[in-house]
Amino acid sequence: MNVLFASSEAYPFFTSGKLGDMTGSLARALKRLNIEIRVILPLYKDMKGVWREKLRYIANYNVPVGWRNQYCGLFELVFNGVYYYFLDNEYYFNRPGFYGYYDDGERFAFFSRAVLETLLHIDYTPQIIQCNDWQTALTPIYLNLNYRHMDKFIHMKTVFTIHDVQYQGKYDPEIADGVLGIGRENYHLVEYDGFVNYLKGAIETADIISTVSPSYAREILNPWYGCGLHHFLRERNDKLHGIISGIDTDEYNPATDKIIASQYDVETFEEGKSKCKEQLRRLFDLEQKDVPLIGMVTHFLSHKGPDLMISAADEIIKSGMQLAILGQGETLYERFFQELAKRHKGQCSVVIGFLPDIARNIYAGSDMFLMPSRIEPCGLAQMLALRYGSIPIVRETGGLRDSIFEGDNGFVFSAYNGNEMRDACFRARSLWENRSEWADLIRRAMKRDNSWAIPARRYAALYQQTLRNDSM
Q: Structure pTM?
């Protein structure tokens, strides 16, 4: 089976979060299943020299962008047995970072169409193109409108994966004809609520829609989670599937991780985590005392649950628990956590930023890991916490609902309520005081398989189902 994975990020080349981690890890896992998986990406300015030196030039060609043609250079690199294609256009991608520019709509319209143009210049024909989030949402549309008549594309299928429905690619309707090249007769495909909406267009035209957890697939059918697109998702519910993501268990392995203070596994975690806890307290300037330590690695955004912390954090700390928090985001929440740390010096500390090494020390050194999210499509942090033996305390939503279970590998609360979050923390503290039962809980957590092996098999089955539907 031939599958092309179209994404705006992929580890280890470009990553700003879960999308990049998924692309790189899933590609490698699918390769192990003997799927001929290839990945296509923009060639951003931020590619490190060690990778740029390995690029091999393939070809260059023009890509239609509205009424214009834009240059596209094609480069190739093989990593972990997977072919990666990089699409070069200095006007669109020779800039720092990946997103946040005034012309992002045009940049990723170019990329979405260039994915298909590239297939005319390489000796590779995918049976399925898997597109991811709004940055590649136009690819299924362009396939149906502009390429379906060509022999190479007649039977090609598309799977579109929604990682977070909040981010939709919404633009002024004037972009449709002049930039996207979508005329009045097809404008209905991308129009929603007076705007061009890339995500809506992919929902309308992709053969299969997937999300990053089964619970999130159900949640986005409702107005609370669907962000205005729930009506369209309900209409295509028969084509909607949820597959929870995994983590790279080679990259995140406490037995081999040189970043943490002491390596350990499921048999040696008691001594190893004790040393890591001491180190975490030194890093965060917390008192060395025999109390449970809760870690957080998060974005300070409203849907990540900081409002619950505002209502309950003081009480949690006063009950005899410490907090080590890493994150950044909205100024309102950054200031709250900084002031919280000042009020509880030695018992609570916050580091503002996204620092991967600090994050690993939190996973390894904390007793518990708190994720009070209002919305969490999949979540990887709770799986990383399990991997390092830090017991998750989570709100029951999205991928947290599908991966963390009260009494088995963590603590769960249902209502988006500070009191329920506080009570879940208190339940965790009570069990922590029974060191034998707590050790059993850590063993169960660390033994849980959250690798990409099972999700990759589910994606492979979804691809097979997509191809069978074409033959029926």
A: 0.94
